Amino acid sequence: MDWQQNTMFTERETLFVEVILPLSLALRYTYRVPLNLNEQVAIGKRVVVQFGKNKIYTALVAKITNEAPTVYEAKYLIDVVDEERIVTDTQLVFWDWIKDYYLCNEGDVMAAALPASLKLASETIIVLKEEGAEDVDLTEKETLVMVALKAQHKLTINEVSKLLGQKTVYPIVNSLLDKELILVAEEVAQKYKPLLKSFVNLSDFYSEEENLKQLFNILERAPKQLDALLVLLKLRKLGNPITKEQILEESNCGNAALKALAEKEIFVISKKPVSRLAKFDEEFSVNFTLTQDQDRAFNELKTAFDTKDVALLHGVTASGKTQIYIKLIEEIIKTDDTQVLFLLPEIALTTQIVERIKLYFGNLIGVYHSKFNNSERVEIWNKVRKGTFKVILGARSAIFLPFQNLKLIVVDEEHESSYKQHDPSPRYQARDAAIYLAHLHKAKVVLGSATPSLESYYNALQGKYALVQVSKRFGGVALPKQEVVSISEETKKKTMVSYFSNVLIKAIDLALEKKEQIVLFQNRRGYATILICATCGYTPKCINCDVSLTYHKSSGKLHCHYCGYYQSSLNICPACGSVHIMQKGFGTERIEEELKLLYPNVSIARLDLDSTRTRNGLQKILSDFQDKKTDILIGTQMVAKGLDFENLNLIGVINADTLLGYPDFRAYERSYQLLAQVAGRAGRRAEQGTVCIQTYDAGHRIIKQVVENDYLGMYADEIAEREKFGYPPFSKMIFLSVRHKDQNVLEIAADRFGKMLKAKFGQRVLGPEIPLISRIRNLYLKQIIIKADKHTAINKVKVALRDAILQFNSQPEFKSVSIVIDVDPY
């Protein structure tokens, strides 16, 4: 295999390396290895290479050979970055599978897989020559550069340009080079730096009792220094390393006193790298027992793994699936070198589940998600590679970590759409990719959900996966009592109060009276969905996308939720000059405002994308709700995802119809899952919870199935529809989005490309059609769908599709047309 190191090369042999560049390139690029780097180069290490005229990149070695490329002369690679491999053989096989399955390029996978700090940046720098020429005449500008260099040691060309206030600085730099005062180099700057802390020790001389007594006499006239010494001696008894911060905090001596003690060689202050993840360090302990129902499921899973590699754990909400996972993990990591990956769909889940699971596994746990900064991510990457972390909790990108001996993958809430990466490429499905990753490691997979995806449940019923069920809630708590309220009936009776039915208002009043907490769900953020002129019907639209703008009262602006464009709100219609501007539709922001008018003395918070943009925004909202500082939490689908609060007993769904009316073959399945998951947040402890679902269509099949907790009924109805019309799991789908900034060019290109595909694949090709949103970020879109039934060799379809796209894009008139491929787009 390409990724396996060939050990037959001799020390002086001319070697070439095929590298993966962090660019979306169809092929690998080959470089020649300088003889002095022969022993350092290895597959999985990063190397510094020049690509193009001036660009320097850090690429990853994927293959070593003694064969030179035939179509171009190989450049020499510049340097080897790593002493040890940062990417394993298994990872490279996995990347190769992602590339082929999801029809992307290897560079796309590398860019997605590696933390940003392992993808290095380059810039030209100038440094002072150690033994520069003396007594040289300098111009005024040359003098400025030299003075700056002596102060800062090195400068980039951009910094020189800013310093001198001119764009062209190369003549000045060349002059200094000619005068042998500076050196110029392309430096690849390592972004990741370990977190260093200052530690304080008493010098060995004063560790002897006699010398220490004399030291007390010496420091009598320096009380601040004496305080610092006393604190150090006290902390030494605890046996832990002593940080500079601890000394300063406990003695209040100030930096000057510590500096003086160091200068007198009484204290030895040294900087050492420390973990940025110390907040997760806790003692290892497992101190709970499973209920009878959980224990049965746990044993069934273990038995199932004798014959199956994947098991679907279908447990009702609050059935204690997490505790079953913990017991499975505990068994796996008894062996010294084994690792477990615990996948979660979103950070909203990670926040609370980390708190729960770290109680059991302490500092054996690593957490990996987008809210960590680059340095933290690199540290986690390295700890996984070295086997320090045995359990990794993470969102979808955690599948790319360098596992050494992975034995179990848990995919919690496996039905969640958040496992699907939509942009940028690779557009992978983390649940499906995790199953292949487990296959490479010979590991087992548990897919857990109260509302499994139809594909997973179908696979379980077909015998491809094992099926284990937990039908009772943990502790025998009853499922919530659900009530459906017709908005149209309440409107006729005039019992609606703003957006709240009389039934929901009474339930809120009762919950507040009992000091219970409430969650209200509305699947739209913002204040008003659209603004519309009552006189002429004008609606403000995004200048970049074919969508109406959403009004956000908090910012006072109209926002596009696709490209981020925003503009000031309207008071006067720009089309007809009317002042009659109406607000239509409503989001979480409007619900929050209306509720504050109804309940002015109640603590109300909002959980949506807008309120959680800061690093700790989400944590604060959830912590306040956990600590009962918040009475009512209003949220989008984020509130449906695995949150567990002991005092939450009432859930209100403001308008269920926004889910049911979406034009997508999975709309009903997704509606059932979301409503069932939202309802499942209520009454998860001792008392039965209450759910109030407001809808215009109270008789809708999905609403009834949610109320009756009838997953099997929903599955039977939906799977029959899917089979009838040839949708997954009875077919594989590939969405192709054809894009161009000129609508006329797009029309011609999409039509031509569609005909090419129909000539290859016949009736499997649907379209091209105009999608629901026909322009995003100033690009016009047309959509083509390839729908291949389960008897079609999908791998052959993918190979033929790649060839067709290459052939199409090679035509001069269509070079500027982009085609975005999305395999398994659901």
Structure described in brief:
This protein is of the alpha/beta class. The chain is 34% helix and 22% strand.
Describe the structure.
- By secondary structure, the protein is an alpha/beta fold.
- The chain has seven domains: about 15-120, PriA, 3(prime) DNA-binding domain (GIY-YIG endonuclease, 3-Layer(aba) Sandwich), CATH 3.40.1440.60; about 120-190, Arc Repressor Mutant, subunit A (Orthogonal Bundle); about 205-265, no CATH class; about 280-475, Rossmann fold (3-Layer(aba) Sandwich), CATH 3.40.50.300; about 480-525 and about 590-720, Rossmann fold (3-Layer(aba) Sandwich), CATH 3.40.50.300; about 530-585, no CATH class; about 730-825, Ribosomal protein S10 (Alpha-Beta Plaits).
- The protein has 25 helices and 33 strands.
- Strands 13-14-12-15-16-11-17 form a seven-stranded parallel β-sheet, sandwiched between helices. Strands 18-28-27-19-26-25 form a six-stranded parallel β-sheet, with helices on both faces. A five-stranded antiparallel β-sheet has the order 2-1-4-3-5.
- A hairpin with a 6-residue loop joins strand 22 and strand 23 (about 565-570).
- Helix 1 packs across helix 2 (about 105-115) and helix 1 runs antiparallel to helix 14 (about 430-440).
- The longest helix is centred in the C-terminal third of the chain and has 19 residues, at about 745-760.
